[in-house]
Structure formats: C-alpha cells, structure tokens
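Sequence in, structure out. Go.
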Amino acid sequence: MGGMSREARLNAAFVMVADTLTADYDVVDLLHTLVRECTEILDAQAGGLMLADGSGQLHVVASTSERADLVEVMQLAAGAGPCVDCFTTGSAVSVPDIQASTEEWPDFRAAALEQGFLSVHATPMRLRGEIIGTMNLFGTSVGTLNRRDAAVAQALADVATIGILQERIAAQSQLVTEQLQRALDSRVLIEQAKGALSHSGALSMEDAFVLLRAHARNNNLSLRVVAEGVANRTLDLIPKLAAAAKPGPVR
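Output:
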C-alpha cells in the first residue's frame, strides 16, 4: 500500500478490519497491522498499542519499533505517562512538546527523549463505556495532531477495539458451546449408568439416579465421573446398595 494516497490507505485499513468480523483472523496480527497503518497514515515516526488484562493491568501488545516499545514499557513500569493517563481517563492525551513537560511523568520524559521522541498522542481504545487499552503515536518533532488527524486516530482505535471484542465474544461463544456439549455428553453417560444400575440391582430408574448422586456427594466426585465409572464397569455400586438400606429421595 506504499503508493496509495492517504485516503486510499485509510479506506483500506477500515476494509481490512471489516473483513475480520466475518472471517477467522489473528487478532495480534490485526493489531500490529493497524498500529503500523495508523502510524504511516498520520505521518508519525513510531506507534504502539497497549491492552489491559483481566485485572486491568496494561501490557504492550504491538509496536512499530523497539524504541516505541521501550518507551511504553518504561511508563508502564513507572505507572505514569500520557498513555497510562489516557487509559485511566478514557480521553485522548496529547503532548506536543515532551521536552517542555518538565513536571509530569519524569520517567516517561527521560525515556522518550533518550529514544529521540519529542511528541506523543495517546488515543483510548473504547467501546461505549469499556476502555480496553490505548493506541499511541510518537513523533520525532514537536507538534500535535490536528483535529482531523486526531479523529482518524480515534476511528482506527475504535475499529481495532471492535475487532478485539469480536474475538473475545467468539471465544466466549466457543466456551459456552463446549460447556453445553459436555453437559449433553454427561447426560448420556448418566442415562447409561442409570440403565446399568436398574438392570443389575432391580432398581427403578429414579432410585438408580438417587444412588449415583448419593455416591458422588459422599465421595466428593462429580456425577459425570461416577456415571462414567458405572457405565464402563470400573465402579460397582450394587454391593454398596446391598450393604445399606434402599436410598430415599435426595432433598
């Protein structure tokens, strides 16, 4: 896309993200591609992307250079910097002249200047009220993004957020599907075990289930494990039934 105009590159970036919503994709590759495209479209010299984990701690997940990666890691270690403030407040943070910011974020300032960066613009990655990270653009000259460029950065951060949340939803959906299938498989095993107990011990199906459940509870086992043992004949509950009174309903 090196020969494309700015508008064409921007359109291509949005199309790329739209494609991820309808097909399998690598979310990490998507984030690297987006931060690279945003950096080039907005004429920044480096870019990075941070995401929060389940406990709300930020981590660097994508960057266009080792220099940007180092600056972001430094401010995460210090727990302070424009990118951290952007995540905390949910609002964009722009520092047009890092060298002049003598009072705020001394560790970030030192690291950024050492790597040759003189300006930074941090954009929140948000969807409605949820802030999941920040996209950060670094410049080697003094200056800030104009209103139009800041809007472009926010739009690209927004579509990246949609892509990430889409991946999370898909993962959660897969988990629910797997849990449902396991429940169905367990039900089949339980029915098989009930049938085996009913046949071997002259029990009703209801009493067979009571016996399965009582053994599971008394031995701190899952009902599935007990049912599987009875079904594959590695667990025999009939002697236990003969040694005890006939079980009543579980309350």
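Check: The longest helix spans residues 147-201. Residues 52 and 132 are 6 Å apart (CA to CA).
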